[in-house]
Amino acid sequence: xDKHEKPVQANGSTQNTLPSNGEHTQINAVSDVIKxxxxxxxxxxxxxxxxxxxxxxxxxxxxxxxxxxxxDQSKYTQQINDVGKQRLLSEQIAKTALLIQHxxxxxxxxxxxxxxxxxxxxxxxxxxxxxxxxxxxxxxxxNSDSIRAMYQQTDKYYQPLRHAxxxxxxxxxxxxxxxxxxxxxxxxxxxxxxxYIRQMDAIANQYDQEAKTSIRRLHNIQIGLLLIAFLTxxxxxxxxxxxxxxxxxxxxxxxxxxxxxxxxxxxxxxxxYDSLKEEEERTRQNSExxxxxxxxxxxxxxxxxxxxDELKLKNRELEEASEIISLNEKLETARFFDNSVSHFxxxxxxxxxxxxxxxxxxxxxxxxxxxxxxxxxxYAFDEEQQRLLATGGHAVAKDFYEVxxxxxxxxxxxxxxxxxxxxxxxxxxxxxxxxxxxxxxxxYPKNIxxxxxxxxxxxxxxxxxxxxxxxEERHLEVLRxxxxxxxxxxxxxxxxxxxxxxLLESQKAQKELENSLLTIQQTEERFRKLAEVTxxxxxxxxxxxxxxxxxxxxxxxxxxxxxxxDLQGKNYLMFIAPEYRVEIEQVSIIDKRAVHETxxxxxxxxxxxxxxxxxxxxxxxxxxxxxxxRDITERKKTEKELEEANRIASLVKELEKKNKDITAxxxxxxxxxxxxxxxxxxxxxxxxxxxxxxxxxxxxxDFYWMTEKNEHTFVAxxxxxxxxxxxxxxxxxxxxxxxxxxxxxxxxxxxEILTKLDAGVSEALRQQEGKSKSRDGMDLGLIAxxxxxxxxxxxxxxxxxxxxxxxxxxxxxGNSFSIGGNFKSKKKKKQFTQIDIELxxxxxxYIASDGYAxxxxxxxxxxxxxxxxxxxLLTIQQxxxxxxxxxxxxxxxQWQGEHRQMDDILVIGLRF
Length: 912
What we know:
The chain is α+β, with helices and mostly antiparallel strands. Helices cover 54% and strands 17% of the residues. The longest helix has 93 residues, at 179-271.
């Protein structure tokens, strides 16, 4: 190429390739800037990513904390609801107990007893779930120390209330119902119910306070996290975005200036082309530099695009933050509902001397201002008359209280809501002539809300509200949530009104009952004798199919069935042992009316001997077969025992046989002794209790005795002289004398009972005769307990009573002489001392014979001693009495070791 010839581009135009000196200087300056900072956003990008990571962690932490606290809030709400349900259930139990006390008809009593037993079972289970948690419902709220302490405090009221309910349950299941004891039990339930309800209210309030504290803590943490995130965003603005923008602007201005100068110099290059030919090569090199600059610009553009994408991501995170704020608003709404329901639950608590009408007015006084209403009326539903009765009003007409409005189902909008059980909400009523049943004559409502009050799917009433301004949706939601509680209270108050009516009727009938008292007593005596005679089972059979139509309870118990209905519909041969059924059919006992012996089949598969006799009976033109069934097990046993006795008499000369005969007699005596011992379940429903009873031999000289007489419960621990057969004979004397003194003679003071017992034993053993050598007697501790008045009376003969109260053991010693024993002191006369004690909740009482303390054992084969017995009683007070019985037995056996038992052992424990 000629040195004066210009280069040609691909399109045919010429191109200047050599820059001037000035242009070369500018290009070098731009090149120096690019070389100094080839990636001007890299440092700021790293800082931006770090700040973005911190912000994301803040939002994630806030979200996790809110999720965790929301979960706890739902559990707090569930706990508060459960406490409220338990409180309401205790009130219903008390009301049902009152209804049982005053019920007249057997059917009505049966329904109420079934309801009482069902509610009592649910109440006990729910109390255990509240106190110890329910694993079936997942993780519960971890109770604070204050709530745990409050639950422990609740036991002081819950345990006596539970014992009284169990006692009432046990009393109403007895054949002969003692109205006095039932009345006492109901009074005791009502006495403890208020304390229990107040304690449950306090627990619910504590749960609410802890939930609010948790919300405040969450709120503070959330504010802190949001402040940190906000500060991070501000730092990003000043430390990242603004420096980046300024640096890029400076960078782009330099490039633009360099480009402008380059274009100006291109024209000069065209004029000086010939002179600058030698600079062509240098221009080419500068072109490469410009190419590199252009590439850097492209990279910068890509980094800006990346930064834009990150800004979009940040916007999405801000949207998520707005969702968290929305959740917080929902939480506030839930708190509003909980607080509102809690407030009106307190408003709806019954006050003294408050009836259905005053309660309704009181509720509307608080409810109408809460929803910004104008007027309101509550209607209660009368299920018998199928009508609605206005029981309460707010801002109603003057004649509202003079003539309370009654509506049929379907009559007006109120009646239609009651009929359809669906709420009605009418807004923006234009006509000024619209008139409600309880409206005023000067101000007309614009909005009407009518809500059915339904509890347990049963219509209890209707709530009618009017307003000038539209009701807020949250207020309507509160009303819907309160509807079931209002309905439950209406239902309960209506039941209370019925109870009061029944009480008035019972007072009116009292005079009539007094006039016919003599006739009732005579009739009762006749029925008592009839009940004593009628101990045989009866089956009523279909004449054709011989299937069971009915039976008496004696037979159902005899066959091991819980209910008579379990027998109905079955052929009577199903209750005969299989190997005897053919024989019964062949004998034809129904036609011959003869008495026949066979074997009966119990529900559990056991067989026992019975005696059958059939006869046909016609009643209301209906003929059926009546089959009498008598359990002859004892008779058969007696026959077998007589045969055995005859056989033993024939072999009396054989010593081995004689020993067996003696052992059999003692075992039989054991059965007799065990038969006369009272059932320890007699105290079930009153107290926690245990009886630790271990005779030294087959029969025992120690025995325990319990009975009830009106409102008193008597418990005695008796230690007769000796043990084995002689002690057992003495126990029979003591048992019969105690029955005679308390049950027949009606003595109730322990000191008087022991004085009469001493005289009776001395007379039975003829110890007052001058030549009597009998020194036999008995030591005992006797307790007379009035559970309703929380009083205990004690008298003892050589035996003490121990009372453990608030960690301290108090010993009340008996008198220093025995019952009987040929006491002939001329200096002093037997005079037993009675000790009276006012009981407190948590008191534990023990009476015992001397067998436990006198047991030899231990490493040195010594007596256990009374001081060790009392010390051990103190160490086991934190356990319930069933566990105490096990620990006392384990301690005894561990001390005894391989040594033989020295005496009969008897320990009785009672906890009030």
